[in-house]
Design goal:
By secondary structure, this protein is an alpha+beta fold. The protein has 5 helices and 4 strands, in the order αααββαββα. A hairpin with a 4-residue loop joins strand 1 and strand 2.
């Protein structure tokens, strides 16, 4: 049986990749994963053909992680999980964390799957852009700020 804890990390990492976070340090900050956990999951996702590693720096050697075709196809699963979570896991009055905007029509795609509720056309993850709610943007910025402060403290 698969380790469900590891699979949860996979979903969180894939969510971050679909949101445009490509670099190890940003992925670590936003997922709150340990370096070892993140390294292991990224290697597994690459071995499974879900992501591709692309060098962006030679010295020191650094990589960005991009969705491969298989990973892009998996994004519909993430959209379904997003819809479920937004419907069933929110407190009353709590707003949507990320509004997915269909770039073709400029309207929100909604929570019904891979057909835009605004225009009725099917879409893929590369045809939407996420707009973070103010609360979710603050939460993510707070994580980034805390990570920067932690790194600064370790240097001194």
């Amino acid at each position: 049986m698969a380790d469900s804890g590891a699979e949860i990390w996979t979903l969180v990492i894939m969510r971050e990749l679909t949101m445009g976070n490509r670099r190890f340090d940003t992925l670590q900050v936003q997922t709150l994963a340990s370096p070892q956990m993140l390294t292991n999951r990224l290697k597994r996702l690459e071995a499974d053909g879900m992501i591709e590693r692309r060098a962006y720096s030679v010295k020191p050697r650094r990589y960005e992680y991009h969705l491969a075709a298989k990973g892009e196809a998996f994004a519909s699963v993430l959209l379904a999980l997003r819809a479920w979570g937004e419907t069933w896991c929110k407190e009353p009055g709590e707003g949507i964390a990320v509004h997915q905007i269909h770039t073709a029509c400029g309207r929100e795609v909604g929570l019904s799957g891979t057909v835009c509720e605004g225009c009725g056309e099917p879409f893929t993850v590369d045809e939407v852009r996420g707009e973070l709610s103010a609360a979710f943007a603050r939460e993510r910025e707070d994580r980034s700020t805390a990570a920067r402060q932690d790194a600064e403290t370790r240097r001194t």
